[in-house]
Amino acid sequence: MKKCCYYLVLCILVFLSVLSCKKSPTTATAPIVITPPPPPADTIANTPIIPPIIYSGYSLLWNDEFNDAGIDGSKWNFETGTGVNGDFGTGQLDRATDRPENAKIQNGVLNSGGGCLAITTRLENFMDRAYTSARLTTAGKGAWAPGTRIEARVWPRDVLYKGQGFAFWMMPAEMPANETYIMWPQGGEIDIMEYVGSIPYDNLGSVHYAWSWENNQYQSWNHGHKGAYYSYDDKQVPVTNPGWGGWPVTAGNASAGSGGFHIYRIDWYSDRMEFAIDDNVYHIHYFNDGAAFNNAPDGQDADAIVTVAGKRVMKSEYSSNHFTQWSPFEHKFFMLFTVGVGGNDNMTYGGAIVPNAIFPCTTFIDWVRVYKRL
Q1: Which end of the chain offers a freer environment for a tag, N or C, measured as fewer CB atoms within 10 Å?
Q2: What is the pLDDT of residues 269-278, one digit of tens each?
Q3: Which domain, by its residues, includes 184?
Q4: What is the pTM of this model?
């Protein structure tokens, strides 16, 4: 009996051994490789804080390096809503909010010096609009006049399509003593940086003004404008003014404003304003008739492209002093950072938004500084 059991057990073991050896060659599996997700695009850079530039002949008067945990409420206001006529006067489709989704301090931005102010337009249903944005101003908290250098280091990284845009600009903080408001454009406007996706290779630096006082009332015809384009590729005024086209550019294209950080500046003197990008002066606007071309006053708002230090520069004149009631560019202006989504080809500088535009659309401001001329 024991012998039979022994053979039985032996047979079972042999059978199991043979069965275990019958493996199909198709059952072998490759080793599992786990690929970690890439880090977020805006947090891959180590950006140590860099102190403000000290220029010869200037002292630092006011600045924001955007290195704090949040946006400094002692320096900035949020302008929310859609403006007095529902589109900020430029045909925009967005609603400005004070949410962190639209404006926040962001660290780790490539090639920045510490933190950045990130301002973002989004395609989202919010209240009564399909787009959201942010508008930050220093109104009531900071304003400056002649005798200053005003500049910001800006990267409109995602402004790539027609209808997308970013502006670094200034509006009047003062008004005549006998007035309760000052009507645009009697009070003037300064556009240090006006960059749109529909004109990707150029920035526009401008002044806006009125020809006539008109009792401080708005008239549709009463608007003067002197602006010059800056070519990022040539680092001067282009041979011919650009039109819409060439979007979207590739990421990092050095010939486009969206390709990286640049320093946008005005040097504000008592008789003129000089617009520059990365130290390249490209527009000089004189406030008095005849001052730009050393000729007798002729009542004309003259302008011309001239060569200065081997570069094409636009000179223009006679905007601030058309009437005796107010000379806007002799008074204080406050600062604005704004983004927008264009809804009208006729009203919006950069045109209406195109269906293939990509959102979110973020612009980074590394810092903004105001210097006093000594």
Answers
A1: N
A2: 999 999 999 9
A3: 63-373
A4: 0.88
Mean pLDDT for the stretch of residues 291-305:
93
State the Cα–Cα distance between residues 184 and 192, nearest whole angstrom: 17
Question: Is residue 11 a part of any domain in this protein?
Answer: no
DSSP designation for 73:
T
Separation CA 153–CA 50 (nearest Å): 12
How many domains are contained in the chain?
Answer: 1
Which residues make beta-bridge pairs with 121?
Answer: 361
What residue type is 338 in one-letter code? T
Tokens 């556009």 label which residue?
Answer: 191
Which residue type occupies 315?
K
Residue type, 340: G
Express each pLDDT in 171-213 by its tens digit.
999 999 999 999 999 999 999 999 999 999 999 999 999 999 9
Token pair in block for residue 264: 């946008």
- For residue 27, being part of any structural domain is answered with no
Which CATH number does the domain housing residue 339 bear?
Answer: 2.60.120.200
Q: Assess if residue 17 is contained within a domain.
A: no
Q: Give 66-106 pLDDT, tens digit per residue.
A: 999 999 999 999 999 999 889 999 999 999 999 999 999 99
Three-state secondary structure string covering the chain: CHHHHHHHHHHHHHHHHHHHHCCCHHHCCCCCCCCCCCCCHHHCCCCCCCCCCCCCCEEEEEEECCCCCCCCCCCCEECCECCCCCCCCCCECEEECCCCCCEEEECCCCCCCCCEEEEEEEEEEECCEEEEECEEECCCCCEECCCEEEEEEEECCCCCCCCEEEEEEEEECCCCCCCCCCCCCCCCEEEEEEEECCCCCEEEEEEEECCCCHHHCCCCCCCEEEEEEEECCCCECCCCCCCCCCCCCCCCCCCCHHHCCEEEEEEECCCEEEEEECCEEEEEEECCCCCCCCCCCCCCCCEEEEEECCEEEEEEECCCCCCCCCCHHHCCEEEEEEEEEECCCCCCCCCCCCCCCCCCEEEEEEEEEEEEEC
8 A C-beta contact, residue 115 and residue 352? no
